[in-house]
Amino acid sequence: MYAAFYSPHRPLHAKPQDIAKYKGKYMAGWDEIRKRRRQRQIELGLFDGSWELSPRDNSVQGVGECPEGMKSLWDMRMATYAAMIDCMTRA
Fold first, then answer.
1. Which one of 6, 16, 17, 76 has the minimum C-beta count within 10 Å?
2. Which of 5, 54, 50, 8 is nearest to 34 (CA)?
3. pLDDT tens, 42-73?
4. What is the Cα 73 distance to its own chain's centre?
5. Nearest to 78 by CA among 23, 33, 8
6. DSSP 24
7. Contacts 24+ apart (CB under 8 A), 69-72
């Protein structure tokens, strides 16, 4: 069996119930989510915490710099992508 986990691509389509599971989880923005994930990995003992996160590419806009309407658009895109991955891993 071949499972290409990079298969989710544009156009993004997912089941509404799967999207609903992730909607709103990305409103904090990429930087904050990365910090939380790093902290969780340290708490789980996966890393010792001595390493620092690499900085965000300066050409990429942070969530605090996005117009309010764009935050919800990016949240929906990320929720849909996460829903696609979730569905694929259940298959």
1. 6
2. 54
3. 999 999 989 889 988 888 888 778 887 888 99
4. 13
5. 23
6. T
7. 71/27, 71/29, 72/27
